[in-house]
Amino acid sequence: MTKIMPMTNETAAMADDPRWARVVARDRTADGQFWYSVASTGVYCRPSCPSRTANPKNVTFHDTLAAAKATGFRPCKRCHPDGVSLAAQNAALVTKACRLIEQSEAALSLAELAEAVDLSPGYFHRIFKTATGVTPKDYMQANQAERVRERLVSGQSVTATIYDAGFNSSSRFYEKATDILGMTPSKYRAGGTDEDIRFAVGQSSLGAILVASSDKGVAAILMGDDPGALVNDLQDRFPRAGLTGGDADYEQLVARVVGMIEAPQIGLDLPLDVRGTAFQQRVWQALTNIPPGNTASYAEIARAIGAPKAVRAVAGACAANHIAVAIPCHRVVRHDGALSGYAWGVARKRALIQREAAATKASGIGDAGLPVS
After folding, report:
1. Confidence of residue 59 (pLDDT cuts 50, 70, 90)
2. Least packed by Cβ within 10 Å: which of 103, 225, 261, 340?
3. What average pLDDT does this structure show over 181-199?
4. What's the Cα-to-Cα distance from 345 to each of 145, 207, 223, 286, 330, rounded to whole Å?
5. At what angle do helices 170-181 and 136-153 cross, to 10 degrees?
6. pLDDT, tens only, 134-165
7. Residues 6+ apart with CB under 8 A from 225
8. Who's near 143: CB < 8 A, 6+ residues apart?
9. Could you give the dihedral angle defined by the CA atoms of residues 142, 113, 315 and 31, in that order, rounded to the nearest 10 degrees?
10. What is the DSSP-derived secondary structure letter of residue 5?
11. For the CA atoms of the chain, what is the radius of gyration?
């Protein structure tokens, strides 16, 4: 039978201290903000110490490392509170690996990268994904894609670009070329003018709505007050494409998008032409898993994609989204539930959240939480 320890005044006070929760959670983001000492073991630690959680009645918090040392206790041998934290060490190694990827002319294997930073492949893979939000392979592919775009724009031949970007063969490159560029390499090199983007503008209760599509699907949904400004925005987002006004049939697509904005429960079952980095696409996919009537914080999205440290990067990916509503970045809020920035205006973000919540309530469907994975 488990023995239940009585709640002492000291224990109750410690439970109310927000620093204790961070110690119990071994929160690495708290490292450097405070330290704690344990009277029963005579050591002092950093908040992320992996040792067994101490009895709170034996714990004292210290605002500085000097204060922790002044106790006369010894530094913990597991978390090394006097030196650089493990998280900081790992971040430095990941940064080194990123520079190696960017500077290498050839693709590097996971084993080669891990050896370069003196780590096992499995451990290196885990810390890389935690720090960047993507795997080493995804990072290398994104770096290759950027090299391809830069070299083709500069006028370099397609053949030279293939090998300069680190592809071992032309066949492997052409397998991925459309996903990387959104079009064939020759079209991209010529400025992309052969890619046709159709668009049309409609009106909704939230203002003007511009919908644009490529041959692959809806490539942009933009909102604003001025239709002309939306067209200029579209030109800025797709500078190499030829823009063509949609016909009457295409305007029916715009009507469907407007209908989704007015009645969120309808949804938008249309193919999307999603263009972004590997990390951005992971974030955007997670956003589509937030049900209408629900919201999630940037930190929750970061945890959902397996990158809990990448909160700022998640916010950046939300800001880079150019398919409004269908990729519902409006459902992402601050950790305290307050509304943060929105590319198409905070007022529109508030209106979308409110009408989705109302529609969900009217349908009798309760809060489904955040079913992202």
Report:
1. very high
2. 103
3. 65
4. 32, 11, 9, 22, 10
5. 80
6. 788 888 877 777 776 666 655 556 566 655 66
7. 207, 208
8. 101, 102
9. -170
10. P
11. 26
Kindly state the tokens that stand for 363. 């349908």
What tokens does 346 get? Answer: 């905070």
Strands ordered across the beta sheet of 218-224: 218-224, 207-213, 196-204, 242-245
Rounded-to-integer distance, Cα 309 and Cα 301, Å: 11
Q: What domains are there in the chain, each with its CATH number?
A: 9-75 (3.40.10.10), 87-189 (1.10.10.60), 196-266 (3.30.160.70), 278-363 (1.10.10.10)
Q: Residue 326 phi/psi, 5° resolution? A: -65, -40
Contact 47/26 with Cβ under 8 angstroms? yes
3-state class of 250 per DSSP? Answer: helix
Whether 331 and 300 have beta carbons less than 8 Å apart is answered as no
| C-alpha span between 112 and 130 (Å, rounded) | 19
Distance (Å, rounded) from C-alpha 56 to C-alpha 24?
10
Q: Which two tokens stand for residue 27?
A: 């929160």
Question: In 3D, which of 273, 269, 265 has the Cα closest to residue 291?
Answer: 265
| E strand or H helix that includes residue 204 | strand 196-204
pLDDT band at 266 (very low <50, low <70, confident <90, very high): low
Round to whole Å and give the CA distance between 328 and 349: 10
Taken in order 228, 232, 237, 242, is the CA torsion positive or negative? positive
Q: How far apart are CA 158 and CA 323, in angstroms?
A: 30
Give the whole-angstrom CA distance, residue 288 versus residue 4: 45
Question: What is the C-alpha separation between 228 and 363, in angstroms, rounded?
Answer: 37
Largest CA distance in the chain: 80
Please identify every residue annotated as catalytic.
Answer: 45, 329
CA distances from 297 to 226, 294, 330 (A): 30, 11, 11
Alpha helices in 305-345 (DSSP H): 311-320
